[in-house]
Amino acid sequence: MSQQAHSPSNGDQLFSTASSNVSNGDQSICDRATVNNLLDRKINKDSLPSLAERIEASCVLTAVGDAIGYRNGTWEFNFSGERIHKELKDEFGGKIANIDTKTWKVSDDTIFHLATLKTLTHKDLNQILTPKLSIGFKDEGFMELVDKIMVVMVQEYVACWKDMGDRSPGKKCRDSINYIKQTRKNKWDSLNYDSRGGGCGGSMRAMSIGLAFHDNLDLLIAIGIESGRLTHNHVVGFMGALQSALFASFAIKQIEPKLWGYLVLEFILPKCRYYLKSVSKRNWKSIEPDLKAFEEKFKKYLGERGILSFTDENIEAIKPQFPEKYGVIERDKYYKSYSFSGWAGSSGDDSIIVAYDALLSSGPNQYEQLVKRACLHGGDSDTTGAIALNWYGALYGFSNVYEKNYENIEKLSSLKLQARKVLEKIEMN
Ligand SMILES: [Mg+2]
């Protein structure tokens, strides 16, 4: 977007912490009026569901997307979208509305996401994650705060492992949790940079970080990245986690989905680079080229959808572009084209791309369409379903969602309780 397109800040900052303006190491980008003015492009201006509803929907629908994509293991591990949609037709009349999830277990995605939620609302952090928390990258004690949060997260991730029976957790998560158990809680960041750590284990569980820290971008970036890095210490793994959390924060802030990718490229990635290189001081030599490749892949996706950049003249007119025929077969093929080894959505980067593509191609408030596109495909469908439905809930609440899909969902009371606690924290801010 051209800088002259918008006047200087209208007072409505993208993220309200002072740190957004002073501590990213790239003043020119943070001062861009264009970024702040994007906030004016909110959706649902007239009929916005309450924040309470959207937080609850975000937490509950994560489990719904997971359970439907998983279908007790049969749909997650069915590699043909066509076969899955045939089963939907034969057994449920082709309608998502007919799915009662009462006997559909949630998988590892929901169990881990619940552990993330429990971290963010943990009593040990009540004194730290206080109202008006405005600490940023350059403030004294920033990494100490990150450390305190991550120590709790380790405890929750280790504890949740007891509840993984019949939920198909990934091998990398298993190995990393075992490693963490051996090295004890204070060694949460001791995992080596790992060329095999690019799976979606981080992105499937990070969304609620974006809910809790939607007003503190520096903390969101740090905790988003570290939450993934805990088990998946590769750029693809931990940046997938960051994007998952970030897009949930964009959804809560009602930023138009078509702009999310642009914001990542223009505003977020420079801050991530600064955090990794200069704040957390990670293995920059290894990270730098991998981060460039991660960026290029995401750019390619945005380019194919026509939402790589915006100008003052075309920002209203630009709509994400999709092929005229974009059915089950075409989507399977397209999703797969972004996969690491043919299983679409199983990596940190393509889990985000598939979920984002499903959200964009379905359109606002199109729940049924979104479930079919995010949860019912021949890839890692429980993860892409969990992520996409989380964002949907944060954007639209329970609008057009079928009660039958969530009224009996496993873990419902825990998810609602955690949603209430997150809301309390947000409202205190
Ligand atoms: Mg799963």
CATH class, named Mainly Alpha
Described by the principal axes of the CA atoms, the overall outline is globular
Low-pLDDT segments, ≥5 res: 1-13, 16-31
The secondary-structure element order is HHHHHHHHHHHHHHHHHHH
Helix/strand class: mainly alpha
Look at the structure and give the mean pLDDT.
89
CATH superfamily: ADP-ribosylation/Crystallin J1
Q: Could you say what the CATH topology is called? A: ADP-ribosylglycohydrolase fold
The hetero molecules present are: magnesium ion
How many domains make up the coordinates? 1
Cofactor: Mg(2+)
Family: Belongs to the ADP-ribosylglycohydrolase family.
Region (Disordered): 1-26
GO molecular function, one term: metal ion binding
